[in-house]
Amino acid sequence: MRSWEKIELVIATSWQPNESDFLRKLKIEPDGIGALFFRDAFACLFSDSINAKREFEQYYSVEYGTLKRYLDGRYGIVMGDDDLEKESIFLCTWLSSALDRHYDDSQFENVMKCIRDLESENESQT
Amino acid sequence: MKVKLDFVSNSSSTSFVYISEGDLEKEDFFKAAGVSPDSPVSGLFGQMFYELSSRIREGTLLSSSDEIDDLDERHEFTAETIAKMKDAVSKGQKVIVSQLSSENNLPEMMMCTSIFEIDSDKFHINAYSNYW
Question: Pick from A17, A33, A57, B53: CA 20 to 30 A from residue A50's CA?
Answer without folding.
Answer: A33
